[in-house]
Amino acid sequence: AKARAAGAAGAAGAAGAAGAAGAAAGSVAKTEAQEPVVLRSAASRALFSVIRAEGTAPAEFSEHSDRLFGLLVEETLATLPGVVPKTVRTPCGDYDGLAPLPAKDVAVVSIMRAGDGLAEAFRRVLRGVAVGRILIQRDEASVDKRAKLYYSKLPKDIASKKAVVLADPMLATGGSLVRAVGVLLAAGVREDRIVVVNVVSAPEGLATLRRAHPDLRIVTGAVDAKLNEQRYIVPGLGDFGDRYYGTV
Ligand code: URA
């Protein structure tokens, strides 16, 4: 999948906002708006250099992950469905900017446990935003080890939100995310209002997710090379949840 780069200029945000406005108006054709947005700033590269390093201890890992979450949160909020261009008057002229969504129009849903820190990062910026949780784990007893839903608690009015952020740091095979998106759709959320946010994506997971749900958006910190035989992302960063919560 061709990815849109974020962080270089306002152009990416403006293109996203234009797409967002179209999506909000109901035109959800397979356009540029559904290409993944990828962080490509020097800031994200520096933070990734710490969290990807295998010798980084949990405290430093979670601190730098939280800082990276900050970049992902801002990029996501600027490209949510429903964000529209807005010109503001500065003391010296006009600035072509964007009108962000208020917290009441957004819901954040984390895939437990790894997505919880990322969901908290959204809560810090979007004060009062409703947060839901989904627990999905691989069913080792099933033949195909399919992703099984164990728990879900969603905001009651989630179907009427203008945007629903689904937070899961590692997009590996895409199995859990496809299952989680199914939970949101069953709750009445429109596919084109869902934004999947993650730290690292594998091409295999991106392809699976986009094939199953072509109209949702994806914001990711990086697209890596591949999955290994254990379905870990290469080069990736290892097990995100274990490193973030210190259960290594
Ligand atoms: N989950 C992780 O935490 N890391 C991977 O590389 C893949 C899935």
From TrEMBL:
Domain Phosphoribosyltransferase: 41-247
Superkingdom as given in the UniProt entry: Eukaryota
Family: Belongs to the UPRTase family.
Protein name as catalogued: uracil phosphoribosyltransferase
Organism: Cafeteria roenbergensis (Marine flagellate)
